[in-house]
Design brief:
The protein contains 26 helices and 19 strands. With 673 residues, the chain is an alpha+beta fold. The longest helix is centred in the middle third of the chain and has 27 residues.
Length: 673
């Protein structure tokens, strides 16, 4: 009952045509993908035989209520075209795509405009970004839910909506609600506020703190990793990106953020508000798909908004772009609470991704299956762990114990969060990365380990010889492991790079998870071409940073301090924010920048009194302290070199840091001799 095709080739012993090592030589003219091997073709066909393509209910829901298809301007928000996907080809995947993922790609391709979810009351624009933008009609205007990834996309979708909505074109947007703290749900906020300056903003509990923690403090690393997960540098084709699991992909532009006027569920797990005449019941779901999240029930409409707690697939317990591990048990329990509180009467279910579901029984069946998928992942992972399974083994073992009902349910398939990496996330949450095998306690750093590995194997030529034979057998998983060591030890070994790229490519063609596919194919691309532009929007954008309070901003600055540069330049600084009772005491000591908010000022080497905007201008190099003092925007006394000491200790992050080993030369002829 395995859906993980990364093991099917080995299990079935499928063979490919025999290819000699030198035939994998780098071909820069063929960077868009090579054909599927026989092993991949046979493995994908074997999986297709297990899938229930007769169940087309999701396609019926996806097409229901379409009012207007995208005009060209709106339809091109997601960069490049997916027109190669035939909407009638759900059960006829190309050789280079996992058949289950292809079916999801066809399903998401069908989202293409403005949909009426509830006549005259609820509308969605689906297919213009990773998330959908939802419009709920209030007494005097529109309430918008989750406002896409970037302001450019939100502005265009807003225009498209008002051009096509049957009624209410004259009404303003009066409220904007963020369901949770991920950028594809708040990043377009500035466009909404620019169009409607009086809009009131609501967000889930602690959303600003969590948005900063996840999108700023580790923002550079996350953006680089997100470029891999979403295939930001890949082309749209049968050999490249076919889908992003939640939708077709992310839009491009500036991520923005408008801080909420009111954060929901701050005191109570369930909170009821009347927003523009519409009663809304908010259930705190923080700690499920995001550290800050909520779902909403609208009693008058019998409508349940699930945010991103559910979508038509298995979500990430650990997201490959990098984030805090999520609590799959709490996730399961929260869906159970949704069933308990609202499931008995809900007639419409809609969320941030995927199409709505109508009918109470269908909604209950959907929520129960979603609940049980996360509960299964949590409970069976720990059952296996308590019987001695370790992190590396759980990725395969979880499929061996999967109930047939979950296996056959389309909307719990691992398009976004595979059961393989989710099971390992559960293990890591409870037991950490260490499996108690002493060999794994203190391994060598990756490059040093790679060099010893290659030496033990008799050198790179010997590894390449063995790897080529295993590649021809379709044993791609171990070939990837072995060749990665060679490429790390010898980044200029172009033959090893090319064979590893071919290996990653076949693994990508077999992967059901969209993120897995994109990561494998992006790795292959960078092995062939070298460093590629990151391609993903910057989560720590100027607009997001502008909404950070001073304490958060100082925490972000501390991450940028080079401890070796700063160790010999200690200082203290007191910051008073004008118009507030906020005082911050900042200290650089032992190469570390710390800060604390105090009730009254504390003497320091430098003492500043300024407003929030001036403080940010100084720290980000947009203005000089002496100029702001001269303009009476800053009151300053003490040692002016403190600001210079701080600025000189900061480093800029590399947005395209190495993921796969980069090569100094694109071709090293000695490896072809």
């Amino acid at each position: 009952m395995k859906r993980n095709l990364l093991t099917i080739s080995i299990i079935l012993g499928l063979a490919s045509s025999n290819v000699a090592a030198d035939e994998h030589a780098l071909n820069l003219k063929n960077v868009n993908g090579k054909p599927a091997t026989a092993a991949t073709i046979n493995a994908n066909k074997a999986l297709a035989q297990t899938l229930n393509f007769a169940d087309g209910r999701a396609f019926e829901n996806d097409s229901a209520g379409l009012i207007a298809e995208f005009d060209k301007e709106t339809g091109d928000i997601i960069r490049n075209s997916f027109d190669f996907i035939d909407l009638n080809s759900a059960s006829d995947a190309p050789d280079t795509v996992n058949p289950s993922l292809w079916r999801q790609a066809v399903l998401n391709q069908g989202a293409k405009g403005l949909y009426e979810v509830l006549p005259g009351k609820v509308y969605q624009v689906r297919g213009a970004d990773l998330a959908s933008l939802t419009f709920i009609k209030g007494n005097t205007g529109w309430i918008v839910y989750d406002v896409l990834t970037v302001k450019e996309a939100a502005a265009q979708v807003l225009k498209f909506f008002f051009n096509n909505v049957p009624s209410g074109k004259e009404l303003p947007v009066v409220a904007m609600i963020y369901s949770h703290s991920h950028a594809d749900h708040f990043g377009g906020a500035r466009a909404i506020q620019d169009a409607f300056p009086d809009v009131k903003v609501y967000g889930s509990k602690n959303i600003t703190k969590e948005a900063v923690d996840e999108n700023v403090l580790a923002g550079n690393a996350m953006s680089r990793r997100a470029a891999y997960q979403y295939g930001a540098t890949l082309g749209r084709s049968e050999q490249g990106i076919v889908d992003a699991a939640l939708a077709k992909g992310i839009s491009y532009g500036e991520i923005t953020y408008v801080k909420p006027d009111y954060e929901l569920n701050h005191k109570d797990k369930i909170e009821t508000l009347i927003i523009d005449g519409v009663e809304m019941v908010f259930l705190d779901a923080s700690g499920t798909e995001a550290p800050s999240e909520m779902v909403t029930y609208i009693p008058s409409m019998k409508a349940l908004w699930t945010g991103e707690v559910t979508y038509h697939g298995m979500h990430n317990v650990y997201t490959l772009r990098g984030a805090k591990v999520r609590d799959s048990l709490k996730w399961s329990k929260t869906i159970n609470e949704m069933l308990h509180y609202f499931g008995g009467e809900a007639e419409t279910l809609f969320g941030s991704h995927s199409s709505p579901i109508w009918g109470n029984q269908e909604i209950q069946d959907y929520l129960k299956m979603q609940r049980d998928a996360y509960g299964f992942t949590h409970n069976q992972t720990l059952r296996l762990a308590n019987n001695g399974y370790v992190l590396q083994d759980l990725g395969d073992a979880i499929y061996e114990v999967m109930p047939e009902s979950i296996f056959k349910s389309w909307h719990t398939n691992g398009y976004h969060g595979t059961y393989s990496h989710n099971a390992r996330a559960v293990y890591n949450m409870y037991l950490g990365y260490f499996d108690m095998n002493p060999a794994n306690l203190n391994p060598l750093p990756t490059k040093a380990e790679a060099k010893k590995f290659v030496e033990y194997m008799g050198g790179s030529k010997e590894v390449l010889s063995r790897a080529t034979k295993d590649f021809n057998k379709g044993e791609y998983r171990f070939v990837a492991t072995a060749l990665n060591k060679v490429v790390m030890a010898e980044p200029g070994n172009m033959l090893a790079r090319s064979l590893l790229a071919d290996t990653y490519e076949q693994l990508g063609y077999q992967a059901e998870g969209a993120g897995w596919r994109n990561i494998y194919l992006t790795g292959a691309q960078e092995l062939r071409l070298g460093k590629v532009s990151p391609g993903a929007p910057k989560s720590a954008s100027a607009d997001v940073v502008s909404e950070m309070d001073v304490g958060m901003l100082l925490d972000y600055i501390a991450v940028q301090v080079d401890s070796l540069k700063a160790q010999n330049t200690p200082f203290t600084m007191s910051v008073k924010l004008k118009g507030t009772d906020e005082y911050y005491y900042v200290e650089m000591s032992n190469g570390n920048l710390s800060n604390i908010q105090l009730e009254k000022p504390k003497a320091a080497d430098a003492e500043l009194a300024l407003d929030d905007a001036a403080f940010k201008q100084i720290l980000f190099g947009q203005a000089k302290l002496k100029d702001l003092v001269a303009q009476n925007k800053v009151e300053f006394k003490g040692d002016q070199s403190v600001i210079e000491k701080l600025a000189s200790s900061l480093v800029e992050f590399d947005p395209a840091f190495e993921v796969v080993p980069f090569s100094a030369k694109q071709v090293d002829a000695k490896f072809y001799k």
